[in-house]
Amino acid sequence: MRLIVTASGWYQLPGIPDMAKLQFGQSFCQIEGAYVPVADMGLAAGDGVYFAHHVLLWKDLAVEIGTLPLRDGWSRLIGGLPLVMAQAQGPGHIAFSRDEPGELIALPIQPGQAVDVREHVFMVATNQVAYDWFGAGIWFTAGSATHYPLGRYMDRFCAPDQPGLVLLHGAGNVFVRRLADRETILVKPTALLFKDTTVGMQLHVEHPGGTWKAWRAGGERFIWLRLQGPGRVAVQSAFPPLEDCGEELVDSSRLTRRRW
Question: Hey, what domains does the chain have and what are their CATH numbers?
Fold first, then answer.
């Protein structure tokens, strides 16, 4: 691992090779395909997973499908998140895919461990992993509209007493860096994939120096996500551009740092 770590501390999280098999409990997950990967799961009797409903590709008739209701549905609806998750119970095979090029990232979650995941990148988790969500607290108001560069909410996955597995989809390549205590970096908000719960976040707004008109101009404003250790941070190399509305910044979350 030391051989592939850059001088600044980043290392590439290797994508799971085609036909690799991951074991969890008495079940397994086989990754099929290199460009648009598929997670083909063979669930043993008594084992189960929950997943975002739109990633289901196919399943055996014997696999039972149900729903996993989520708390505070009204807030999730406003935030553009699904109101329910689907869950599957073995025995039998079931497969998942995002139908997009990228990498499947397997995150083993040990008892007592938790990770925060940016919304809309989660695919599948085993039943041993508990799911929750929380307000990201990263926003700014420009003109009359409030914008959420990171998304209004984030997902949190933890393993209360048994190890579990979470599968995420990363666009392009995925890179990870472990931040030391109080060490900070700036990343584009849409590039963030996941972070340890110990990593803090701030909205970081930069304006170039110059005239009064220059620093007021929205087109001359640069919006970043500041992350502070300790803990891991993962980013994806292919991410949607962060569109700025160009209007004057009138308010922002308390987790904001400006640089003029």
Answer: 11-259 (3.60.160.10)
